[in-house]
Amino acid sequence: MLERRDVVGKARTGTGKTAAFGIPMAHTVDPALDKVQAIVLVPTRELAIQVSDELRRLCQFCGLRVATLYGGQPIQGQIEVLRQGTHIMVGTPGRVLDHLARRTLLLDGVRLAVVDEVDRMLDVGFAYDIERILRQVPSPHQTALFSATIPLFIERLIHRRLDDPVWVDVPEGEDIELKVEQVYYEVAKQDRLEGLEELLAKNGHGKQTIIFRRTQIGVDKLVSHLRRHGYGARGIHGGMAQAQRNRVMHDFRSGELNLLVATDVASRGLDIPSISHVINFDMPANVEEYVHRVGRTGRMGRDGTAITFVSEWDIDLLDDLRERVGHKLKREVLAIYCRNVARPCTVPLTSVPPVGLGVLVR
User: Fold this and answer.
1) Is the pLDDT of residue 68 over 60?
2) CA gap 264, 346 in Å, rounded
3) Are residues 203 and 228 in the same domain?
């Protein structure tokens, strides 16, 4: 980055990507030039806030100003920040395009463009928007793309937009396999709530935990259930107002909130080192999403635990996880399935007397 080479970084979140492009920004952006000289595109509002905060810390003694542009909040305040002058812009593609259309943001001084979590950009439909923005960055400029996976579209984007890039490839799963204990439980769908309460009671109320669900309504229902049973849980998903999402994330970062129920909006990019447990109440959609979820714990050298519930329709994905993770993924049995078993609870589920789990037996 410091040699002004184009860069492709293939690595999961938590591997130091923000510092990898933020430190070169602190060195190369000119504080005397009062215009936007570097842009960072990210897929979510929460990631925009996090990256901006990190860049401000990295640049605090360099005289550089960072603006954060994302939807879900009044645009007028962002326009005022841009009018006052900024050197580095971090934003989500939709809101960035809005400012470009209003001409409240100009890219004529940009010499460094970073696109973070590119594969996540594709998931949420920003592929075309990324191209539109990069086309407005004048040449010559330096481009850096960061992604956990490199599907065909990203290969084409690299070919079109990057000039002889340097590739940096951090092997997938290298960190989580070393630092995160990975456990799965085969649990009938109707038993998951009871199983979750068992795990929370076992792990204790004081440990910071993220529980992942696939849908927004699933998050809301689980939060209601947990709160009725005495847990101070709160939820976060894309259907919430941005101010509410910001409050939840602030409380979770500060440690005031220990139990967060989330959709995958929280599974990428968010760096909260104190998270000790990740619980996949719903199985992720694929192995890559599993890696991103699990990557929320075991950060900055800490140990972590990732727990996954495998229900009736999840067996095929379980096979994929076993193939990827191997012996690191351990099977355990919930106590709710051992109550009538006159032997230790390490017995395989296929040996447990019928308790509604027959559908899980191959």
Assistant:
1) yes
2) 31
3) yes
Contact 43, 122 (CB under 8 A): no
Is 102 found in the same domain as 14? yes
- Cis peptide before 93, with omega less than 30 degrees from 0? no
Q: Which of 303, 246, 256, 314 is nearest to 280 (CA)?
A: 314
What distance in Å separates the CA atoms of residue 45 and residue 47, rounded to the nearest whole number? Answer: 5
Residue 117 near residue 269, CB atoms below 8 Å? yes
Q: Does 321 score more than 50 pLDDT?
A: yes
Handedness of CA 114, 119, 122, 127 (dihedral sign): positive
Residues 274 and 336 in one domain: yes
Where does a domain end: 137, 154, 169? 169
Same domain, 31 and 162: yes
User: Angle at the Cα of 42 (from 156 to 124), degrees rounded to 5?
Assistant: 70
CATH number at residue 164: 3.40.50.300
The C-alpha atoms of residue 34 and residue 108 are separated, in whole angstroms, by 12
Length of the chain: 362
- Tell me which residue range forms the domain holding 31: 7-169
- The number of domains in the chain is 2
Residues 6+ apart with CB under 8 A from 237: 216, 219, 220, 262, 263, 265
Tell me: the pLDDT tens digits for 221-263?
999 999 999 999 999 988 888 788 888 988 998 889 999 999 9
